[in-house]
TrEMBL record:
This is RsmB/NOP family class I SAM-dependent RNA methyltransferase. The lineage of its organism: Bacteria, Pseudomonadati, Bacteroidota, Flavobacteriia, Flavobacteriales. S-adenosyl-L-methionine binds at D256, D283, D301. It is an enzyme of class 2 (transferase). It holds the Pfam family RsmF-B_ferredox. Belongs to the class I-like SAM-binding methyltransferase superfamily. RsmB/NOP family. InterPro entries: MeTrfase_RsmB-F_NOP2_cat (IPR049560), MeTrfase_RsmB-F_NOP2_dom (IPR001678), RCMT (IPR023267), RsmB-like_ferredoxin (IPR054728), SAM-dependent_MTases_sf (IPR029063). GO terms for biological process: methylation. Residues 142-403 form the SAM-dependent MTase RsmB/NOP-type domain.
Length: 403
């Protein structure tokens, strides 16, 4: 691989913003990719993947390079030099990379790889929580899997097409996909590419949605004509799936505390041809109270640590704080208690998170079942999806029924 100065410099600028100014990696990458219109798809992939890699491996690379935050420009080039050496990329003779100690870097890597928190490049507290909640053996495998680059999976929009036709259409646009066993609506891209630019995407034929996430709406067991409330709908990944599973018949009420996310949901619903979704911002307790005992199905896709989706969101390793875990657990318990009241008797509810920690998952459900409201519920099924076993995001989902 030949390194291009302008691509590397753009990546270094982006890393400075992410590490030193606390900017989000995905947003910074999007902005960086707009910097030069002449960049082709390979250039763009280089920039995005190099930045994500160095974000993912920050702790390991910083230990190897012996640099500390806030990183100077020189430090960032040292991190980049570590990336080059460990990837076997030939170092160019630029002054910033002069005197890179290649042998020492490899030696330090071998040494540090013996210790999980360095090898997997995670903060001490995260390693401790992982071991405490999942045990050494499972955590060791899981955090390793969560450091792999996430595959790109799409969900066929059954309101407009079917997986076979979609695969053919995408092939004509130069994108090869494969079917996923046991995920009926999913296709996986054989090579990463910017699928948002395709006509198929603009026509609403698919959504980008991880395979594990596609399990959630499926579990809710919806039927056309039902009244379904998606209580933490965000930008609507699952709500759109529910609309398709309901064949656009019945009603989906999509709630969230953030109006801007619901606006994005509306845009996506229009593109997808999903006409049965109504959005309501939760701006007072009345919004929820008005819905008590009214829904056949309730989805609680709860806010969580996001530890199951580290592979697509590696900067969460550095943004997440242990105090946030405590507060999010409290919020999850409150949400379960309050939003479960929306369900009618005999109705079904799914509680889901993209976390792999039992304290956000099965322990929350068990705690809920012991509350006054929870006593009206029976747990029908629960599923923990580990990334190390599935190859996709880590997820948890529980199906409950109101007596
Ligand atoms: C896991 S995300 C939802 C993802 C979304 N369901 C999807 O499939 O794309 C959790 C959502 O819960 C929202 N949220 C956080 N606290 C909430 C609360 N108290 N009530 C309702 N929604 C909340 C967040 O804004 C976020 O959009």
């Amino acid at each position: 691989m030949r390194l291009h100065r302008n691509l590397v410099f753009a990546s270094i600028d982006a890393l400075a913003e992410i590490f030193n100014d606390g900017k989000y990696a995905d947003k910074t990458i999007q902005k960086t990719l707009k910097r030069d219109k002449r960049w082709g798809s390979r250039d763009r992939s280089f920039v995005a993947e190099t930045i994500y890699d160095i974000v993912r491996w920050k702790r390991l690379y910083a230990e190897i390079a012996e640099v500390k935050q806030p990183f100077s420009r020189e430090d960032l080039f040292r991190l980049f030099a570590v990336w080059c050496v460990l990837r076997g990329v030939k170092l160019p003779d630029w002054p910033q990379l002069e005197k890179t100690p290649e042998r020492r870097i490899k030696g330090r890597f071998d040494e540090l790889s013996k210790i999980r928190k360095y090898r997997e490049s995670i903060p001490d507290w995260m390693d401790e929580v992982g071991v405490k909640e999942l045990g050494e053996k499972v955590w060791t495998k899981e955090i390793h899997a969560l450091n792999e680059q996430a595959p790109v999976v799409i969900r066929t929009n059954k309101l407009k097409t079917d997986p076979k036709s979609l695969a053919d259409i995408l092939r004509e646009e130069g994108i090869e996909t494969s079917n996923l066993n046991n995920y009926p609506e999913a296709l996986e891209l054989k090579e990463r590419s910017n699928i948002f630019r395709t006509k198929a995407f603009q026509d609403g034929l698919f959504e980008v949605q991880d395979a594990s996430s596609q399990r959630v709406a499926e579990l809710l067991d919806v039927q056309p004509g039902m009244r379904v409330v998606d209580t933490c709908a965000g930008a609507g990944g699952k709500a759109l799936h529910l609309a398709a599973l309901m064949d656009n018949k019945g009603q989906i009420i999509a709630l969230d505390i953030y109006g801007n996310k619901l606006k994005e949901l509306k845009r996506r619903a229009k593109r997808a041809g999903a006409h049965n979704i109504e959005t309501r911002e939760i701006d007072s307790t009345k919004v929820i109270k008005k819905l008590y005992n009214s829904a056949d199905r309730v989805l609680i896709d709860a806010p969580c640590s996001g530890l199951g989706v580290l592979s697509r969101n590696p900067d969460a390793k550095w943004k997440l704080q242990p105090e946030f875990l405590d507060s999010i657990r409290k919020e999850q318990a409150e949400i379960l208690e309050k939003y479960s009241k929306i369900l009618k008797s005999k109705g079904k509810m799914v509680y889901a998170t993209c976390s792999i920690l039992p304290s956000e998952n099965q322990q929350q459900v068990q705690k809920f079942l012991k509350t006054g409201e929870g006593a009206n519920f029976t747990l029908l099924k629960e599923k923990t999806i580990l990334s190390s076993e599935s190859g996709y995001d880590g997820f948890y989902m529980a199906l409950l029924e109101k007596k």
